[in-house]
């Protein structure tokens, strides 16, 4: 017991010295922070000893962009569309007041594609279902409207909202198979469509041992992008792969393999 007391007595000055050194170090740190100079990266001030360099800003590649009012929403609120909501045993669907084949595709189809950017009900439902209905009954009319669809598709993808991207990709897959030569007609516009797909290509959900229900609902962005790129390559003709590879370097051909 006497030995333990003597050992503690000998260690006490050491503990006080260590604590004092720690407090002095903290004071020096505070003083250095107060007297430091905030400098921008790679500037002359950033080379000083007491300089605090501002960290780089976040790139924001996956950040959602603010939504804008669409022409589809304004036209729907004015009652310009010959559509109504019909409740069925299988769910909701669009009741067209005229035959879809008689619609002016140059006027209506770009408006419905622009409505894919909407996220609120009922605009989102009418735009999504309206696009698929018009593509299903469009036939040869769709090919002539392709140049008018590029800007609305680009705007919907540039919103960078995952639900909007999934809806647009499904519409794009339907567009490719809606008629002959549509896939080849889209090849010159890959530079407008594919950059966002290149950003979100590897954004898959890693659920570990859990169950990923988004695969069944087709809401996994990475899988949808892969399916869309493969559909574009199959329908885009001989020049499709090299153009896709130029915009999405990590894409591997589904035809050559």
Automatic annotation (TrEMBL):
<feature type="region of interest" description="Disordered">
    <location>
        <begin position="1"/>
        <end position="26"/>
    </location>
</feature>
<protein>
    <submittedName>
        <fullName>Parkin coregulated gene protein-like</fullName>
    </submittedName>
</protein>
<dbReference type="Pfam" id="PF10274">
    <property type="entry name" value="ParcG"/>
</dbReference>
<feature type="compositionally biased region" description="Polar residues">
    <location>
        <begin position="1"/>
        <end position="11"/>
    </location>
</feature>
<dbReference type="GO" id="GO:0051879">
    <property type="term" value="F:Hsp90 protein binding"/>
</dbReference>
<dbReference type="InterPro" id="IPR019399">
    <property type="entry name" value="Parkin_co-regulated_protein"/>
</dbReference>
<dbReference type="GO" id="GO:0030544">
    <property type="term" value="F:Hsp70 protein binding"/>
</dbReference>
